[in-house]
Amino acid sequence: xxxxxxxxxxxxxxxxxxxxxxxxxxxxxxxxxxxxxxxxxxxxxxxxxxxxxxxxxxxxxxxxxxxxxxxxxxxxxxxxxxxxxxxxxxxxxxxxxxxxxxxxxxxxxxxxxxxxxxxxxxxxxxxxxxxxxxxxxxxxxxxxxxxxxxxxxxxxxxxxxxxxxxxxxxxxxxxxxxxxxxxxxxxxxxxxxxxxxxxxxxxxxxxxxxxxxxxxxxxxxxxxxxxxxxxxxxxxxxxxxxxxxxxxxxxxxxxxxxxxxxxxxxxxxxxxxxxxxxxxxxxxxxxxxxxxxxxxxxxxxxxxxxxxxxxxxxxxxxxxxxxxxxxxxxxxxxxxxxxxxxxxxxxxxxxxxxxxxxxxxxxxxxxxxxxxxxxxxxxxxxxxxxxxxxxxxxxxxxxxxxxxxxxxxxxxxxxxxxxxxxxxxxxxxxxxxxxxxxxxxxxxxxxxxxxxxxxxxxxxxxxxxxxxxxxxxxxxxxxxxxxxxxxxxxxxxxxxxxxxxxxxxxxxxxxxxxxxxxxxxxxxxxxxxxxxxxxxxxxxxxxxxxxxxxxxxxxxxxxxxxxxxxxxxxxxxxxxxxxxxxxxxxxxxxxxxxxxx
Length: 597
Prior knowledge:
By secondary structure, the protein is an alpha+beta fold. Helix content is about 60%, strand content about 15%. The protein has 20 helices and ten strands. The strands form two sheets. A six-stranded antiparallel sheet has the order 7-6-5-10-9-8, with helices on both faces. The longest helix has about 55 residues, at about 195-250. The chain is rod-shaped. It starts with a helix and ends in a 9-residue tail after the last helix.
C-alpha cells in the first residue's frame, strides 16, 4: 500500500472500524472465558459441597458414638467418586477421626469444609478435596473454542470493516478521482449521484461545478479561438501589407505592375468574385479600371468616364461604402453593368493620399448581402498600404519620366553637334532594348541598356565639331581622336552613382567579338553583354542611316552584313537573334521625333 493510500480516508476509516471491532471481540471473548471459568469452578464446588453435606449427614449420628469403622466406611464410599482426592472427618476439637485419600496425589485441588451439626451443636467437620484436573481441561477447551471464535470473528470484522469503509468512502474516492481528471483537463467528468443523502448531495454539487467549469472553459476556448483567429487575421493582413510594401515600394515598379501586385494580394485576403482597382488623375474625367474576375482569363483594363460611376461620391466622402444589393439602390451606369453581369454585393474603398483621392478598390460578389464589416475593415487596412503604393508609383512614374526626358534631352544635344546623326541615340536605345528583350535579359538589364543606348555617344561632347561634321573620310589622327569618345564618355558617366553600370557599357560598346575593337581590345565573353547588344544596335542604325559619304544601306544588305560579321565584329548569338527578328528591328529604324518608350 502506498503512502497516499495509508493516509487516505478509506484506510483510516477501515483502521478505526477494525480497531473498534477487534476491541469489542476481545472484550466479549475475555468476558466469555471468565464467565465459563467461574461457572465450571462453581459447578465443581457445588459437587464438592454436595458430597461433603451428604457425608456430614451420614457421620453425624456416628461421631458421638465414636464408631470409627462406620465413619471410615462412609468416607470410603465418598472417596470412590472420580474427582475426590481425599476425605477427612474431624471431631469438635479438630482431631482427625478418619482420613481416606487416593494413592495418586494431585496438588491442584479444590477443598471444601462442611460442619457436622446436631441441633445446632457442632460435632465436627467434614473436609473434601476435589481434583481440578478435569476442570482445567474443560477450561482450556472453552478457552481454545473462545479464541477460535474470536479469531474468526476478527477476520470477519476486518473484512466487514473494509467493505463498510469502502462502501462509505466510495463517493469520496469517486469525487477525488473526478477532481484529478478535471485537473488533468477532462471536462466530461460526472460522478454517480448515489450513496447517502450527504454524499449524493455532494455528488450533485460536484457535477454542477464540473458542468459550470466545462461551460466556462468552452466559453474561454471560444474566446481564445476568436482572439486567435482575429490575431491570425491581423497577422495575415500585416503580412499582406508587408508583401505589398516590399514588392511595390522597394522595387519602384510602374503603376500597372503595382496594381497587378495589389490585386493578387486582395485575392488572397478577401473573398470576391470580381476585384477592380480604379485610378484617375486630378482634373481628368475618366478613370482607368483594372478588372479581375474569377471566371475571367486575367486582369483587363478599361477606361470609364467618372460621371458614369459612384467613384467621385465615394472619394468625396473619404470612407468605404457597402452596397448590400445593387438591385435595391440607385445605380450608376457602371453599377447597372455590374448587376447585368450578376453581381449584387459591392464594397467601395477609397484610396486617399491625405485629402487627395488616388482611386478606389471595388470588390464584388454575386450573393446579396455578402460583405460584412469585418471584410470592409480588412479592405480598409489594406487600402492604406495600397494608397501609399499607388502614390509612390505615381511619384516614381513622374520622376522616371523626368529622368528619361533629361537623358533624351542630353542625347539630342549631343546628336545636334553632328548634323548627320540626328536622332541616332534614340534609335540605338530602341534597337538595343528590343535586342535585349529578344535575348531574354531581365527588365532591369533592359532598362540599363536603354539608358546606355541613349548615352553611348556622350563622349563625343569632347570631340571637335570639325571632326564630327567632316563630310569625308577621317584621317588617322582624326580617327584616333574619334575613337577616344567611348573612354571619354565612360569618364564622364562614372562619377555619377546611377550611371556606373552605364559607364562600363558605354566604355566597351566599340569592342569587337574577335578582339580587334577599341579601346582595350577585349574579345568574346570579356565584353559585357550589354556592350555587345549596343554594338549591334549602333551598327544597324549606322548602316540604315544616310551619311555624307553614302546613302543608307538597303535592308537586305544590312542583314547580309550582320551575317557576314557574326563571330568577328558581333556576338554570333546576338547577330542570329537580330537576323531572325530583322523585320521587327527594321521597323524601329524609321525616324520619329519622339519615339515611344
